[in-house]
Amino acid sequence: MPSIKIRFAKKEDCEWLWKLVNDTEVRKASFSKDYIPWKKHLEWFKSKLKDPNIIIYIGLDNRGKPFGQVRFEIDSREAEISVSIDKEYRGKGYGSRLIKKTCLSLFASTEIETISANIRIGNEKSIKSFKKVGFQEIRNKNTNESKKNCMQLRK
Q1: What CATH number does residue 133 fall under?
Q2: pLDDT tens across 46-59, in order?
Q3: What is the pTM of this model?
């Protein structure tokens, strides 16, 4: 399989990320299913780039083309992960490879000890990708909005 690279998100990624988050399958797998207007996304993205507790990685294929994003929201020694993969790359192993590479990078560059993933129940492709990297299911959780699988990876 071709190699992948990661880099930190930059302001030039904003439009590509907006298109990615509004992809039909990405919205279906998200806890909030509503379309995200450009202005709202732009404000959100600018605030996340400035936030010291947010790290956004962009996955690049062997040609340097973006194929996915991973966002970590950090709270002390824990982080919550969020992942989106471009439809062209889904089902080809890119998701698990991106999750692994970004988690290893986060563990190596921070004091983070635990990474958590909250995945909508029924999103078996994501669950499989996280398990492939070593995440363990810790519980199912019912919230007012939806049911979710909670998974964790420890350093």
Answers
A1: 3.40.630.30
A2: 999 999 999 999 99
A3: 0.89
